[in-house]
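Standup notes
- HV: blocked on the assembly model, inputs below
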Amino acid sequence: MGKAPDSDDPDWGSVMHRIAEARDIDSFSAVFRHFAPRLTSFLMRSGATRAEAEEVTQDVMTVLWQKAHLFDPRRASLSTWIFAIARNRRIDRLRKERRPEPQEVLWGPEQADDHTEAMIMKQDTAHLTRALTELPEKQRKLIERAFFGDLSHSDIARETGLPLGTIKSRIRLALERLRHSMSQTTR
Amino acid sequence: MTLTHHISDEILLSYAAGALPEAFGVVVASHISLCDDCRARMTGFDALGGAILERETGQPVTDTQLGEMLTLIAHLPQDSAAARPSTRSATPKKLSQGQLPAPLCDYVGERLDSLPWRAVGGGVRQYVLPTKGTARARMLYIPAGTKIPDHGHGGMELTLVLQGSYHDADDSFGPGDIDIAGADTQHTPVAAENMPCICLTATDAPLRFRGLLPRVVQSFLRI
Ligand SMILES: [Zn+2]
């Protein structure tokens, strides 16, 4: 706290709050500058052409502008929230399917320490990003592939020449490592 | 309710990635609505998706792109913050009260007794959910003590028990439990003697009930 705003690690909760409450264009521009390149790249690695990826990125940023008030920094990081919107837009556009969502859970009464909860979420997110970065490259690549889209394990097997069993056990190993390093840093 | 059989990491990862067909999504979302453990793991996988997005790099936004985007939103109506839905909404439904999980209600309504079941033989009834894509989700009603029709499946099968229970050679499954069977699984579940078993099943290959109905009827019933 008391630290000057860090351009690499902005307080997205406040930024989103300004978009929701004041329709602040500067705040929206900051989110766009940070996330639009990441989203477009993510979508292209998922198999979209540049034009398609830019279109979906605009879609997602439009949803963000309209639904900014639904972002809750205690429950998810902004990158996770945006990831989920992009994922659902893709299902909608490419497969013309809908995504069944679990029923929302109850949240306890509004606490005075919302800010603390948001800070914990922010720290957890930083831990996860670091843990992902520290994974052996082969494992991280497979996890990324799993998130880039409709590729099944057998497609990955065909492309990488790795046996299906190896792919599955590598993904399992990667998840174990992530969980292990998360438990080390948070407990 | 003590749940003993959960969704595997592999399936949760596909769900988080958006790669799971809608029919399987209904089963996964329904179980998560009842299971804190799987909900917590799903949240972790969503966060992983966010972390992967955050690590991406791309060409910086040009002024033209930003201008285009700002023009786009300038003409949009904004959702009013007053319309903010409460996240403290309904109490999650409990199967013990004879209610169905919310994601399933979106497809079949709230009440089981108004469901247009169709007989598939041997007292077994089914209802196919209106999902898109080639995978199918269906509700199955199996009379007490009845063997679930011997069905070969060419792919994965994901089952959520909604009422009653069933067992196979190795295990038994009660309300809220998930049963995952692969293409190679020999699966001959039997509903418990005390009450009929109702479950929700997704399959990614056409389910073929052997020896019960002629093929033409099978295709008619979209089995
Ligand atoms: Zn579970």
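- HV (later): unblocked. Residues 1-6 of chain A have pLDDT under 50 and may be disordered. The CA atoms of residues 58 and 82 of chain A lie 12 Å apart.
- Next: hand off to the docking folks.
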